Amino acid sequence: MNTLRKNLCWIFALAAFVYLQIAVSGILRTTHRPHAFLSLRNLLVPVLYTAFAVVFGLASWTVWKGRPSARGWGIAASLINILVSLTPVILAIIFSPRSVWGHSAVARSVWESFALVFGFGVAGLVAFWRAYEQPGSKASSQENLRIPGDGTSDLANKTVGILIFAAYFGAYAWWIRWLRARGVSGNEGSSHGGLIGLLVLSLIVTTLHELGHTVTGLALGMRLRAFIVGPFQWRIREGKWKFQFNPREILSAGGATGVVPATADFPRWRDLCMLAAGPFVNLVTGIFALWIAFTAQSNSYIQAGGSLALFGAWSLIIGSANLLPFRTRDQYSDGAQISQLLSNGPWGDWHRVLAVIGSSLVTPLRPRNYDIDAIQRAARGIAQGKQGLLLRLWAYSYFLDLERIPEAGEMLRQAESIYHQSASDIPAELHSEFVFGNAYVLRDADAAREWWTRMEAKKPTRLNVDYWRAASALHWIEGDLQQANEEWEKSNALAEQLPKAGAYEFDRYCCCKLRQALDEVPALAG
Fold first, then answer.
1. How many CA atoms lie within 13 A of 193 on its CB side?
2. Is the distance from CB of 504 to CB of 495 less than 8 angstroms?
């Protein structure tokens, strides 16, 4: 739901700009006509649209800042959208029904425009009607935290979304003027595109970007484990491809590709080629599309009603933006990753380690095969945030897989310290590692119970091997052997169904070690 609210934030900002522009234009027209201010209509229109601009501006600003008042302003803006979309349609049905129900380009344009605004209004009510859940102040501050040495800046991380949105809107405004100047055939009913048309066009741009990463990676001997474009998400989970449609991502049109190396010593230059391929595809297709749009005849079918020009402009924006170094949430841009890999610093090690971790889900590589030197080098330079926490957990898994229990315990304590300082926003499922580690490795029942409580507060949705193994270890350390054995059976049954990949072999190994502990003298809760 927070993702939908963030997306609506940009739509509210656009609406505020449009309403303010209409209000200013109305005032300017009024001042150039004698006695115009004596007309109530000429006074009412600028005032009304100015009020709309204020409401949408405040809705956008409060959502962006995460203020509690965002719920009220979001609902107000959404109701205005619904009112604005329905009023002209109702009036048209009453006074000129044929213009609405006809099949002319004008009628189609009316329906597309008002359906778009109505859809935004409904989406806003869905997003803001429920109680506005605020993230904790610590979690909120972690969202775009700049970690020293990552090659990004706080200013870029905070403003890149606005700048890309502004560039998209600017390209759209240029496209409308270009259509009118060129008289491109087919734009009578689609000059405003409509929500579906614009989203499809944006998804095509994103899809080509992700395909650039994917095809290049596969050609260089890498493995694909995830492919995401907007709400369409394909992932390998527990050895099987699974599709998920996430409606909360409909307005984002973002994407991601999980391409991982097949070996631990994968050449770095291949990673760089894979990363650069996404923006490269956007730049090439954008230039090619604009070249065709400017050279083809205006009435040519290849113009696709003018969509080819907008596709080209948006492709150039995405391709160029992704070459800039910035971070959004937990993701680094292609440009940031390329810069980090070339730096030979901790972030270069981070990406190399991350790639091997991903490959353990589709290859025989397991934690004992991790490059512990690279992990420790990266950990020395990345001492905060989710990345710092994950590095310690990966080192913990490495030592645990080699039965080096003291080192595993130390890495777990370091990960806990980072969690409390700057990474409390990790997903619920990752908490199970802390529950199991505190119970089995550190033999600390109180700490294990605290981590279990934190995990349950985040409402885990995947009751998988890790969840039941953590539950079993917790009840074992607390002395409830019957419950511990029942949960171990659930965990082991799920582990046996997992495919033959390194990460899942480690799951079976942990189940085996816990079984040995259950069969020995029970641990005392402490």
1. 21
2. yes
Burial (CB count within 10 angstroms: exposed 0-12, middle 13-18, buried 19+), residue 448: buried
CB atoms within 10 A of CB 360: 23
Instruction: Count CB-CB contacts under 10 A for residue 35.
Output: 7
- Express each pLDDT in 110-130 by its tens digit: 555 566 677 777 878 887 877
Q: What is the pLDDT of residues 70-79, one digit of tens each?
A: 888 888 888 8
Angstrom distance (rounded) from CA 290 to CA 315:
10
Q: Is 483 exposed, middle or buried (0-12, 13-18, 19+ CB in 10 A)?
A: middle
Residue among 407, 337, 397, 326 nearest 368 (CA)? 397
- Distances in Å between the Cα of 241 and the Cα atoms of 234, 266, 501 are 7, 24, 14
Q: Please compute, for residue 293, the number of CA atoms within 13 A of its CA located in the half-sphere on the CB side.
A: 23
Q: Dump pLDDT digits (tens) for 350-369.
A: 888 998 898 998 889 999 99
Q: Judge contact between 401 and 420, C-beta under 8 A.
A: no
Q: Parse the chain into domains and list their residue ranges.
A: 2-136, 168-337, 344-426, 433-526
Burial track 365-398 (b if 16+ CB lie within 10 A, e otherwise): bbbbbbbbebbebbbebbbbbbbbbbbbbbbbbb
Residue 454, burial from CB neighbour count under 10 angstroms (0-12, 13-18, 19+): middle
The set of residues, in sequence order, having a beta carbon less than 8 Å from that of 12 and lying 6+ positions away, is 56, 57, 59, 60, 63, 74, 77
Which residues, in sequence order, are CB contacts of 463 under 8 Å at separation 6+?
A: none
Place of tokens 């993230």: 135
What CA–CA distance (Å, rounded) separates 244 from 46?
46
CA dihedral sign of residues 19, 20, 21, 24: positive
- Cβ–Cβ under 8 Å, residues 92 and 128: no
- Contact assessment for residue 144 and residue 157, using Cβ atoms and an 8 Å cutoff: yes
**β partners of residue 255:** 229
Reading the block at residue 302, the tokens are 């290849």
| Sequence-ordered list of residues with C-beta below 8 angstroms from that of 204, at least 6 positions apart, any chain | 311
**Cα dihedral sign, 37-42-48-53:** negative
Whether pTM exceeds 0.85: no
Q: Which residues are within 8 A (CB) of 438 and not within 5 positions of it... i.e. 6 or more apart? A: 412, 444, 447, 448, 451
State residue 253's pLDDT score. Answer: 67
